[in-house]
Amino acid sequence: IARPQRDTWYTIPTDWSGALSAHDILEPEWLDSRRANSLPKPYHADATFGSAYQLMRSRYRHDGVPLLLETAYLEAELHRRFTPEGVRKTPILKLLDAVPRLRILRAEQIIYIGTSDSETSAALVIPLNAPIAVVRRTVCGEGRTILFASEGFYRGDLVREYFLNYQEAIT
């Protein structure tokens, strides 16, 4: 993969407030929404499943370039609370955060590096086996029930992570 011709990077958020606003600069493209025939993968320990989920697939662009292919599962009862337009235009984490009296007890994220398969390569316009960042998120409510689970594939040539673990005081 060649480096992009411009110095445009997308930083994957690593905290709740960052995750709530991360998609604000991205352009969503709705690919699919239907009742899930299977339950989401249990990406995080000690999570339990609800009775039904809505499966949603989206592609997001950053500065016009395909950046992210996401498959998400939203607990079906929660999905019914939102308008179709709201789900298409508003990131699910933002919708969940705004639901009155919804207790989010845990949110977890795992980021790892992988390579693209044929479907991801075609959707993100990258070569087969190109490096990608894989982000798995799980949001749990009461009873450790999975309210939302997603798996996102980010183009490896357009993302970066920045962590500042320690900085001495400058005097």
Features:
single chain, 171 residues, 6-stranded antiparallel beta sheet, two-stranded parallel ribbon, 37% strand
In a few lines, what is going on in this structure?
This protein is of the alpha+beta class and 171 residues long. It is built from five helices and eight strands; from the N terminus they run E-H-E-E-E-H-H-H-E-H-E-E-E. The longest helix has 7 residues, at 118-124.
Question: What does this molecule look like?
Answer:
With 171 residues, the protein is α+β, with helices and mostly antiparallel strands. Helices cover 18% and strands 37% of the residues. It is built from five helices and eight strands. The protein has helices at 16-21, 76-81, 84-89, 92-97, 118-124; strands at 10-11, 27-35, 53-62, 65-75, 106-115, 131-140, 146-155, 159-160. The strands form two sheets. It has a six-stranded antiparallel beta sheet. It has a two-stranded parallel ribbon with strand order 1-8. The termini are far apart. The model has no long low-confidence stretch (mean pLDDT 88).
First-residue to last-residue Cα separation = 43 Å
State the secondary-structure class: alpha+beta
- Strand order in the largest sheet: 2-3-4-7-6-5
Our estimate of the beta-strand percent is 35-45%
Principal-axis shape: globular
Largest sheet: 6 strands, antiparallel
Average per-residue pLDDT, rounded, comes to 88
Residue stretches low in confidence (pLDDT < 50, at least 5 long) are none
Helix-strand sequence: EHEEEHHHEHEEE
Helix content: 10-25%
User: How many helix segments?
Assistant: 5
Give a count of the beta strands, DSSP E runs of length 2 or more: 8
Task: Report the C-alpha radius of gyration, rounded.
Answer: 17 Å
